[in-house]
Amino acid sequence: MASSLCNLALLALAVAFCVQGTLGEIACENLDQGSCAFAVSSTGKRCVLEKQVRRSGEEAYTCRSSEIEADNLKDHIETDACITACGLDRKTLGVSSDSLLESRFTQKLCSSGCYENCPNIVDLYFSLAAGEGVFLPKLCEAQRGIARRGMAEIRSSGDVAPGPIQPVKFIGVAPALAPSY
């Protein structure tokens, strides 16, 4: 009786593993270099590609789960169409808001092909922009209108260092003034 229960338990465990595999659960650590960047695991964590240089000088790429969670999205590998439409690269290492400073990238991100069709990527950059104190829809609005204002908004996070309390004294040569026309 005990051996049949044991066999039944093993069979149930094997079926559970098979069903999990067929449902398409994604573990970042199991993804290759070509599908890692911009993927979301079955736990809702974003996958990031990392490069490691071995002692031999050989480069190795690994995929791992980041601490960044996707909003209401799990088990997703981004499509090639969205990667292209949003101006991204499958070989992107890590996750960073730095690309939001590049006007070419924000143009692609805010294009209708990306913004309206690639919710995973828009969600990621919405969160990254928010971390910098920027509201992505406003940035896209500025990108469509006056791009420079949007870029200035990112560069200025709102925190400004206070000016000197006492007047600055120059010792030696006075600063040159810009010519007035």
Automatic annotation (TrEMBL):
Cleavable signal peptide: 1-24
UniProt keyword annotation of Repressor present: no
UniProt keyword Signal present: yes
Keyword list, A-Z: Signal
InterPro entries attached to this UniProt entry: PAR1
Recorded coiled-coil stretches: none
Top-rank taxon: Eukaryota
Name the UniProt record assigns to this protein: PAR1 protein
Organism: Corymbia citriodora subsp. variegata
